[in-house]
Amino acid sequence: MKTSATRSRRVSFILAVFFLLFLPTAVAFADTGLDNLTPDEKNNISVFQQTNKSVVNVTNSQIQKDFFTLNIYEIPAGAGTGFVWDRSGLIVTNYHVIENASKIKITLWDQSNWDGKVVGTAPHKDLAVIKIEAPADKLFPITTGDSNKLDVGRKVLAIGNPFGLDTTLTIGVVSALGREIEAGGRRIKDLIQTDAAINPGNSGGPLLNSKGELVGVNTIIISSSGASAGVGFAIPVNTVKEIIPQLITHGKIMRPIIGITTVHDSIARRYRIEGVIVYQVPAGSNADKAGLMGVRQDSRGNISLGDIITKIDEHPIRNQGDLFSVLEEYKPGDLVTLETVRNNSQRKYKIRLAEPE
Fold this sequence. Notes:
alpha+beta, Thrombin, subunit H, 6-stranded antiparallel barrel, 6-stranded antiparallel β-barrel, elongated
């Protein structure tokens, strides 16, 4: 009996030690809730859950005709990302995502597919607006923030469809502000640079702050391999908020005009001319009244250049992209000073900008 009692006490002691040593560990393994996450992890999860239904997949298809059979085929030409702008079915994405598209398909968060119709484009800002006829209860507009409040080092999050992998979240910081790059023959200014991974397919997707607010539209990466190298760029949301209403109403940016036609940049580059060559100056226009002159041809067919625009006020003009970007900073009726070169002589003109046609 004494031996049996001693043995019982030993078993009780061993069980007590087991529970003291191992029970806390077992409880810890069982507790997999949000309580064990860091504040930053909780924020990442919250932002994703708040915004992932706003992000869409954009597929660009183009029509091609078989050379031998003359049969027409629809082939995939690219894919990217976009986001819901409002409950009427307006979608914002990059212009280069839908460029030359014969057909656009928008895939929402619930995997439903909708045909997209182009409402407006701004090639020199790499922005486009698409319209789909989806019911309002499937559409979750994204909340816009203020890109002027961004600072280098602030956390940002990107959601997109890299390599066809839908609603992928990447995280980084603002690496720089006010960047200017040239892409696809277009010079894009005042970009946000970020090290949040942006890969092919992310284009047109939202760049978000820690509140889940839109602060930029992801547009391009700089990489020799075509994959993320920690140098990505986004169009600031304040630029987006200025342009999108114009695209919705007019289908394009309503910048004021000088009232001239110009020669394509490729011609200027061919002859190593820096600036914008004036081609025609309509009679009676403000530019004509100021004395601006376009390309001329004499009776023998010899062509001579007129004015080459090199500056508007304090802004240097190297190409048509510069000209368009600078004009967006003015409104119709503003008086500007154009500096040009004609016959190797510098000239200045005072011209009042006109309403776009």
